[in-house]
Amino acid sequence: MEVVNAIGRRKAAVARIFLSDGKGQITINKKDINEYFPLDQLRFIVLQPLNLLEVADRYDIRVNLDGGGIKGQAEALRLAIARALVKIDPESKKELRANGFMTRDPRVVERKKPGRPKARKRFQFSKR
Question: Taking the domains of the chain in order of start, what are their residue ranges?
């Protein structure tokens, strides 16, 4: 199999992945997944599509992760992995979509408005 690439995004995070045949090695920005995501919860999020299709030990994944926070990066990587798995096996799309791994979460931070301290918060009102 040739190398399959895909992109996943979440908030300000962008994950570009290169998926190839291998033994289940995941390298993120030239670091091992256990080093890059020290929390079990974040590793669980990343591995969800692989564990759902039971192919966690079949592919090696190289990742370029950029922007956002650690949770957004984990969710961007999950989307990228799901998209790459669909490129390899289109039959798996239905199962991945049913578990919500194919949908790009559109929620992003609202911009700050002029004359306000944040997007919607107002300065304290003073009658006098």
Answer: 4-98
Residue 103 CB contacts under 8 Å (≥ 6 apart), including other chains? 97
Q: What is the pLDDT of residues 86-120, one digit of tens each?
A: 999 999 999 999 999 999 999 999 999 999 999 99
Residue 4: which of 59, 46, 76, 43 has the closest Cα?
Answer: 59
* CB of 48 closer than 8 Å to CB of 100: no
The reply to whether CATH 3.30.420.40 applies to domain 4-98 is: no
Tens-digit pLDDT profile for residues 16-51: 999 999 999 999 999 999 999 999 999 999 999 999
Structure tokens at 93: 């799309």
